[in-house]
Design a protein that fits this description.
This protein has 306 residues and is mainly α. Helices cover 48% and strands 11% of the residues.
């Protein structure tokens, strides 16, 4: 249920962003920390009476994170939230430096490794629960819900999926469930695999993957042109254009021009080729533009493949 100021449009809209602030980091880390005990099967504290696991060994967990997620923020060797340090001699607080993508790794690590807990009995002398763990991770569903709620409240364009991976949310995306389903039906395995890889990379929160996504989708575009293997590349592309256009001259002209322009973009920009005379893509946001432009044509074309 929304609150009064939300219902009446009295709140300033939250800025939607991919950049995780120190406050958002703190909230997401707190969310993860509430589920750390479900990792105790992996980093157990053993009951002195020999009753098995009785809790999480946070020290062992922190040590393991040095190998699992080397750039995760630490203080004195233990994983922790970064802080804003206030100094009377400085006009603004000084934030600890942190790697936001390491935090995303932590979210995925928790989601992929938490197991459901059974509390066997309460040990009165040592004042702890004796725990047992099965192979189930139904608790992950609750974790997904809580993390995604935190992402949303912080205005972060990420979501933790049921595959237990964090993906970007692109508000102007062309990619849809229908296009993903259409990709799965492509008969030619090379084209299908390239498009699946391009989509996976595009959804990733990591900037380098967005670059790779554009390269993969342009590779898919070039392979699409040769879909009909009994024809030359031009003849194959012409057949695809003809099928898309239903023989209508205006659409043949439109799609031919788009095929030609996308080919020129792939040749002139540093997408598939890296010679020094290629145009560098220096603004990360332009990768989404290139990906969506190419996908718009491919997503239409694959509906007409025979």
């Amino acid at each position: 249920m929304s609150l009064y100021t939300e219902r009446h449009g009295m709140r300033t809209p939250i800025e939607r962003t991919y950049s995780i602030s120190i406050i958002a980091y703190s909230r997401l880390f707190d969310c993860c920390s509430r589920y750390f005990e479900y990792l105790a099967w992996k980093y157990p504290v053993e009951c002195p009476d020999g009753n098995g696991c009785c809790g999480l060994d946070f020290g062992k967990f922190s040590e393991d994170m040095e190998f699992e997620i080397p750039t995760l923020f630490r203080r004195e060797g233990r994983i922790e939230k970064p802080r804003s340090l206030h100094n009377v001699f400085e006009p603004e607080p000084i934030d600890d430096e942190f790697d936001q993508y390491a935090l995303i790794d932590l979210i995925e690590f928790v989601a992929q490794n938490i197991h459901d807990i059974t509390r066997k009995s309460y040990h009165r002398f040592f004042k702890h629960d004796d725990l047992s763990f099965g192979e189930t991770n139904e608790i992950a569903e609750k974790f997904i819900e809580e993390i995604n709620n935190t992402f949303q409240k912080a205005g972060l364009l990420y979501q933790l999926t049921t595959n237990l991976e964090v993906e970007r949310i692109e508000e102007t995306a062309i990619l849809s469930e229908k296009i993903e389903k259409d990709i799965q039906t492509i008969k030619e395995p090379g084209l299908r695999e390239l498009l699946i890889m391009a989509v996976q990379k595009h959804k990733s929160p990591y900037p380098n993957d967005q670059k790779d996504a554009v390269e993969k989708i342009w590779d898919a575009f070039e392979r699409l042109k040769t879909y009909y293997t009994n024809k030359s590349k031009k003849e194959s592309a012409d057949q695809i254009i003809g099928d898309m256009s239903d023989g209508k001259d205006a659409y043949i002209e439109l799609f031919t021009a788009e095929f030609k322009l996308l080919t020129e973009i792939g040749n002139n920009y540093r997408i598939r080729h890296h010679e020094t005379n290629k145009i560098d893509i220096t603004d990360i946001r332009h990768y989404d533009y290139f990906f969506n432009r190419c996908l718009a044509l491919i997503g239409t074309a694959i509906q007409y493949l025979k």
